[in-house]
Amino acid sequence: MRLSAMGDILHALPAVTALREAHPEWHIGWAVEPQWKPLLAADDAAVRGPAMPLVDRVHIVPARRWARELLSAKTLSEVRQTRCELRGERYDVCIDLQGAFRSAMIASWARADRLIGEAVPRERPARWFFSQHVETRGVHVIEQALEVVNAVADGSLPVRLPLLPVDPDAERKAGLISAPFVLLNPGAGWGAKRWPVDRYIEVARRLRNAGYSVLVNAGPGEDALADEIARLSDGAAVALRSSIAELIAVTRRAALVIGGDTGPVHLASALDRPVVGIFGPTDPARNGPFGGNFRVLRHPESRRDHTRHHTPEAGLLTISPDAVMAAATELLEGAQ
Fold first, then answer.
1. Average pLDDT along the chain, 336 residues, taken 10 residues at a time
2. Do domains 6-152 and 168-335 have the same CATH topology?
3. Is 3.40.50.1010 the CATH number for 6-152?
4. What is the DSSP track for 234-259?
5. What angle do CA 320, 5, 62 make, to 5 degrees?
6. Among 41, 139, 197, 286, which is disulfide-ready with 47 (CB 3.0 to 4.6 Å)?
7. Which uninterrupted H or E stretch holds 214?
8. What's the start-to-end Cα distance of the chain, in Å?
9. Helices assigned H by DSSP within the chain
10. In which element (H, E) is residue 126 found?
């Protein structure tokens, strides 16, 4: 169980990848919100990971829509169908990597012999559903997910780069992009995590002057943001609109990815691409790039705060385009 969101699913992928590699004969299912299915894509024969399908079954669980339309006939019908589907797989073990009351409750529908979760989950009432509680000691959420999954693998799983789908059509499209290029990800889940637009514009101009093409990723609801950067950069940047499969393919080819605490930046880290992370109210030690080649910029006085403020956090505003370009240049030159 890891229903959402993009970055959180990517942080769970290394643990499940390690489980799959250690036990290729096991039947593994994943319950996920519908928009994130392309990160798994297990049931499409044309879309597979580089070595093997990560999971054998994807269970689509539109839990957020259910919460908005709680008493609708459609929701009640889908809930019944999902309960039957989960029970029908006859899972021996269910692992809740989300740690929310909602995800734990849905996990219980599978009626597995063991329902495993963290001893201190993100939402404390989730504990009520767990039959086994795992004490996690890792700092990063990737390490914590691995500790939980290790409960069914005798504590022997290593950290692995995740298996991610390879979509042939998306790969062909991405192959048409002129290289070398840098991918900017200016969006974020809320305003406090969002580095100002004018600074991304300045970085885009400098990257162009250094000989790089610049793409600006437009996530859901972020078209205007990407268009603004492209329009005001004097041709230095181009807005990128892509499906998740296409974003995976494009990111695989990026010389560098720059952005804040957001799903596409975590995707770059999962694909082992160089990353410059621009962090403010979220702690990169827990949620930032993991492994690989990266530089994280964060003011020492920034404090962890998940309050969804609309304006950038004060520490985030102390990070200059000069600092970002210095980190970018170091990574780009190191890759040559």
1. 96 96 93 95 44 82 97 97 98 98 98 98 97 97 97 89 90 95 96 97 98 95 95 96 95 98 96 97 96 95 92 97 98 88
2. yes
3. no
4. TTSEEEE---HHHHHHHHHH-SEEEE
5. 150
6. 41
7. strand 213-217
8. 40
9. 6-22, 63-68, 73-88, 101-108, 141-149, 168-174, 197-209, 223-232, 244-253, 263-270, 284-287, 321-335
10. none
Q: How far apart are the C-alpha atoms of 212 and 209, rounded to whole Å?
A: 7
**Sole residue written with tokens 């969006």:** 187
Residue ranges of domains in the chain: 6-152, 168-335
CATH fourth-level superfamily of 168-335: Glycogen Phosphorylase B; (3.40.50.2000)
Q: Are 166 and 48 in contact (CB under 8 A)?
A: yes
Pairing of strands 132-134, 114-118: parallel
Residues paired with 32 in a beta bridge: 60
